[in-house]
Design a protein that fits this description.
208 residues, Tetracycline Repressor, domain 2, Arc Repressor Mutant, subunit A, 2 domains, mainly alpha
């Protein structure tokens, strides 16, 4: 029992240090681009020995991957919650869904830099595609809460592509302004509704 306790102490210390490193990276990314930080920078900010940081992560991109996974789960949890109010149309649901995501990005600049920023490495962008598939399903579910969607083949893929369209608009906004503006938010919603509208009628039967 005593041996097990002794083993758990370093394990807990390691988990605490990993958490501090990820949160420090998140804090630093409020004011820094991805390519301006090193693992050593994050370790010093976190008060963790640099040697320990390299024990947990191969490099700064490895740390970014761990932080991205955490942020993605937070984004999914946000979009699982029922949207406020009773929508009159499905495009209204799309708008609320997108604006909830923009508020998430505004509250956490690290999320915006990692998920839709221009400096995100290609391998991390590829990981985010799987997250966008899940987000597309959640948008589909949010609409289905209120309206009856027609049984179109590969319907979830359609919603995934709609999320990708929004990501493109958000990425363009990050390139031009370093943040997601209201204008680009409106453009993202307009583009998603136009794309989805090529598959679904403007008015869907309301779910009883």
């Amino acid at each position: 029992m005593l041996l097990a306790t002794r083993r758990s102490v370093p394990r807990k210390r390691g988990l605490a240090r990993r958490s501090r490193l990820e949160e420090s990276a998140r804090e630093l990314l409020k004011d820094h681009e991805l390519d301006t930080l090193s693992l050593g920078d994050v370790a010093r900010h976190a008060g963790v020995p640099v040697s320990s940081a390299y024990h947990f992560y191969d490099d700064i991109r490895d740390l970014y991957a761990a932080l991205l996974a955490k942020i993605q789960e937070e984004a999914l949890e946000l979009h699982r919650k029922p949207l406020p109010g009773v929508p009159r149309t499905w495009p209204e649901v799309v708008g609320k869904f997108a604006r909830a995501g923009v508020r998430f990005f505004h509250a956490d600049p690290a999320a915006a830099r990692l998920m839709v920023g221009p400096k995100t490495p290609a391998d991390l962008k590829l990981r985010d595609r799987a997250n966008d598939i899940a987000l597309g399903r959640l948008m589909e579910e949010q609409i289905s809460r209120h309206f009856v969607l027609p049984p179109i083949p590969s319907r979830s893929r359609i919603f995934f592509r709609a999320v990708e369209i929004a990501d493109l608009m958000f990425s363009l906004s990050m390139v031009e302004y370093g943040r997601i503006t209201r204008e680009y938010t409106d453009e993202a919603i307009r583009a998603m509704v136009a794309y989805l509208g090529s598959y679904f009628p403007a008015e869907l039967p309301r779910r009883k």
